[in-house]
Amino acid sequence: MDEKAELKVAGKSYFFPVITGSENEKAVDFSKLRDQTGYITYDPGYGNTGACSSAITFIDGEKGILRYRGIPIEDLAEKSTFVETSYLLIYGHLPTKVELEDFRTKLTYHSMIHESMLRFFDGYPSSAHPMCILSSMVSSLSAYYPELLDPVSDEQVDALVPRVLSKIRTIAAYSYKKSIGQPVIYPVNALNYCANFLHMMFAVPSEPYEVDPDVVDTLNTLLILHADHEQNCSTSTVRLVGSSHANLFASVSAGISALWGPRHGGANQAVVEMLEQIHRNGGDVKAAVTAAKDRDSKFLLMGFGHRVYKSYDPRAAIIRRHCDRLLSKQKVKDPLLDIAKRLEETALSDPYFKERNLYPNVDFYSGLIYRALGIPTNMYTVMFSLGRLPGWIAHWREMHQSSDSSRIGRPRQVYTGETISPYVPIEAR
Ligand code: ACO
Fold first, then answer.
1. If I label 252, which of 1, 243, 322, 352 is the partner at 20 to 30 A Cα–Cα?
2. Angle (deg, nearest 10), helices 248-260 and 380-401
3. Mean pLDDT, the chain, whole residue set
4. How much is the pLDDT for 324?
5. Cα(327)–Cα(346) distance, integer angstroms
6. What is the pLDDT of residue 266?
7. Measured CA angle at 119 (ends 115, 120), to 5 deg
8. How far apart are the first and last CA of the chain?
9. Residues in a beta bridge with 19
10. Does the pTM of the predicted model rise above 0.85?
11. Which of 306, 322, 395, 400 is catalytic?
């Protein structure tokens, strides 16, 4: 018999279906709650609310498990490339050789942006954060593809997907070049996705630039680790905006804005700034941990804690290993890595962090790798956006193809304001 959940309210009993996910996750289907009872659910922060069903990513926050389309993140980080993982997330299966080659070719041939867009970059002050440039530029891309913006046309969406992935990478690199006053470097078709990005970031017209294969490998891994994380703040934003049938560029641009905040993707920049501050203060990690525990200080240990993970974030463990490997290969000694490790050790042995299950998240070590790759601090969240792009696209596409998400996203509220009040003329106020 189908499982039902009983709700007793105002002396009456109501029964609601229980749905079960493929990993045995249970949910009570309250989609008819208001129709049947007149009540709504109240869940600020959505910690207990399933907004959709999804077959893309599975997370078990208690056990520290993350899988894309069923494949463990550890295997993808070791064996896959970012392009292959993007295909997996968006289209639901690992590509065959032919499918992968076709996808790569499309990414290669859609990498340039309209030349007139280069003038947009000149309008920003040099102090502009690259995330504001990125989100505006991505929204502006809609202006150049009016014939590909219908979210319910499979043909148009399929034509748009490689353009979104490829052009946003180009815009990200250009926003950096503009911020340091260097000429933009056009994409090179002979280079793969990650190598091309590094080339656009670091080459200059006056001398040849060799892309380091170790750096390409590390970048592939980092982008794979960021590629999806089910219904996080930015992905939910992309879905919500997309539910109004806004086009893919507009939806992704909104996701970029959501990611910018320091409680979400902006944390990687905040972590490095925090580590630099601790370094300037003589490396006293205990003082930082004490400040983070003080509820009046408003200081949080950036890169610690997660809404879903209540154990070690599996991505943080992989990044920490890569960070050690890359720095020792490049014979670089970064004092911030030493501070980060001591900070982690001190926090993890402190009852405040233990009791609240606060562990390092993906952002705790990612900034240190970006530093080792020569990527400046204000570009870290841009790097996160590049990584998260295939996840946003996959969710946006899944939403448009699924029957249960065909309605516009529109939460309700519990109104707590004034009841009906008279309009008082200004002279009488
Ligand atoms: N430092 C100190 N205390 C913390 C931290 C932290 N980093 N994170 C959470 N806490 C405390 C809270 O104050 C709260 O304490 P209380 O129970 O005494 O009130 C308790 O731990 C639970 O925290 P919540 O705020 O309820 O956790 P929530 O799930 O809402 O927030 C979040 C998760 C936003 C990630 C939070 O841990 C945080 O702000 N961390 C720092 C920022 C960060 O690293 N963000 C990146 C997240 S990963 C990502 O987006 C890619």
1. 322
2. 140
3. 94
4. 85
5. 23
6. 85
7. 110
8. 63
9. 27
10. yes
11. 306
Q: Give me the DSSP letters along 270-287.
A: HHHHHHHHHHHTTS-HHH
C-alpha R_g of the chain: 23
Averaged pLDDT for residues 150-172: 96
Write out the H or E segment, with its range, that includes residue 155. helix 154-179
Confidence of residue 185 (pLDDT cuts 50, 70, 90): very high
Place of tokens 């007139």: 116
What does the angle CA 262 – CA 267 – CA 270 come to, to the nearest 5 degrees? 90
Which amino acid type is present at position 336?
A: L
Any atom of ligand 1 within 6 Å of the Cβ of 302 = yes
Distances (CA, A) of 268 to 165, 238, 273, 346, 370: 22, 21, 9, 20, 9
Burial environment of residue 158 by CB neighbours within 10 A (0 to 12, 13 to 18, 19 or more): middle
Q: Is 395 a catalytic residue?
A: no
In the reported structure, the alpha carbon of residue 191 is separated from the centroid of ligand 1 by a whole-number distance in angstroms of 40
Is the CB of residue 356 below 6 angstroms from any atom belonging to ligand 1? yes
The partner residues of 13 in beta bridges, in order of sequence, read 8
Phi, psi of 246 (to 5 degrees): -65, 150
| Angstrom distance (rounded) from CA 139 to CA 257 | 11
Distance CA 61, CA 228 (A): 14
